[in-house]
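Ticket closed. Logging final result for Acyltransferase 3 domain-containing protein.
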Amino acid sequence: MLYGIDAGNISGSLYYIYSFLRIISIPFLNVYVIISGYFLVNSGFKIKKIFLFWIQTFFYSLALYLLISLLTGTQISIKTLLYSSLPISGNRYWFSRVYFGMYILSPFFSVFLKAMTKRQYKLFLWIITSLFCLWRMIIPFATTLNSEGGNSIIWFFTLYAYAGYLRLHFNRNFNYKKLFLLFCASQLVTYIGYLFINFLSNSIGLAGKGSSIITEYTSITVLTSSLLIFLTALNMDQIKSKKIQNAIYYFSNSSYSVYLIHENPDVRGLLWSNTLYMLNPYLTMGISLIFSPLLYILCMLIDKISWKPIYNILNKIQWMPVQKKIDNIMENQVNLQTYKHD
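Final structure:
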């Protein structure tokens, strides 16, 4: 929700609080992709997963558009209805569009990753990190291969490659408390770096331009934070309390649906354009701090009530007679097998 606040109207101590809270939230989109890559790199192609992913996106896109139109008394537009019915092709959610493409191509990319030795894999990570991460940070004005700031399939596959390395070659057993402290330190570096670059930019008359290079998804500090918090989560089984483990799973299980609900263009427009944008930024910040966790819980409950029952039914039904045939063709033709590593 902090992205909806007009940062141009924020100054003084509120600016530092806003920047800090915003930076805290940035790595978690990367984490979602890393989690997916971690499990996909060793799993076979499943057409049902793609279907369920699309249906879930379609369900929320269309249902929320019709619901918001009904509640606000807005006339239904045929064009918007079409875009809502085709949420990925219509780019209603940029993340869903890119993630969908990554998932389809993941079997081929997994074969490529598994074919490399550990040494080759490390070199590959150095190269893609330099091309898609460091290049833009060192030369901010350069038109790089990943100039979208992380909103592209190139960056998603970069994260996928890191996830694959963690799955195939990395010892995951670390103390989760130490990992979390390192995550906090990395976030602090991002925050201080952002303030420094912003101060430097303002000092030379650039009005803060360039400060975003350290807060983009592709930033080396954001990438580091993303990997650290993922490894922290990966070692959460060290927590002996089953209640805490179950609570973490219960809340995280609806994360994609929460995204689909609160980032829906119609819901987002209703939240910001018609309400919070008109408030004083100090009041908006206070409301956001209180409302954000409540919004997550509300979206999660909506998901448990609306989508989860549908998902459970669809997941049990052999809804496509050729499902296994497609999966087998993909697995045999792409030749998904485990390679030996150094």
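Residues 336-342 have pLDDT under 50 and may be disordered. No further action required.
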